[in-house]
From TrEMBL:
GO terms for cellular component: endoplasmic reticulum membrane. GO terms for biological process: autophagosome assembly; cellular response to interferon-beta; innate immune response. PANTHER family: INTERFERON-GAMMA-INDUCIBLE GTPASE IFGGA3 PROTEIN-RELATED, INTERFERON-INDUCIBLE GTPASE. InterPro entries: Immunity-related_GTPase-like, IRG. It comes from the Eukaryota. GO terms for molecular function: GTP binding; GTPase activity. This is Interferon-inducible GTPase 1. It comes from Cricetulus griseus (Chinese hamster). Pfam families: IIGP.
Length: 119
């Protein structure tokens, strides 16, 4: 019989105790696609979470670049325009994932009682 893992975590300070071990365990035990989605859904609460998001998105960008490179070898009209629009959508999504979109920055500025420019 397998012994279940037990993690001690703190609500007030996530860097205390086993929070990082819990996150590592959750991510390690998930299949690849679920791991990617879970990694992106984690809040930017620790530096390790931001680093994981960065690595996950970097892998995704390489796959997308490879796909775009292959598609670029095929002659087609309007691909460049579509690619630029897709890039804009993806860049906006990355801003949201990392919490640096306009709405997130405004909320953070409001919480810290500073202007968005000071952030």
């Amino acid at each position: 019989m397998d012994v279940p893992q037990i993690f001690l975590i703190s609500n007030s300070d996530l860097s205390d105790y086993d929070f990082q071990v819990l996150m590592d365990s959750l991510i390690r035990d998930l299949p690849a696609q679920k791991r990617h989605n879970f990694t992106l859904s984690i809040s930017n609460i620790t530096e390790a979470a931001v680093d994981r998001k960065h690595e996950s998105i970097q892998q995704y960008i390489w796959l997308e670049a490879f796909k775009s490179g292959l598609l670029a070898t095929l002659p087609a009209v309007g691909i460049l325009r579509d690619d630029v629009e897709k890039l804009k959508v993806k860049l906006k999504r990355y801003q949201v994932i990392f919490g640096v979109d306009d709405e997130s920055l405004e909320l953070i500025a409001k919480d810290f009682k500073v202007s968005v420019e000071q952030l």
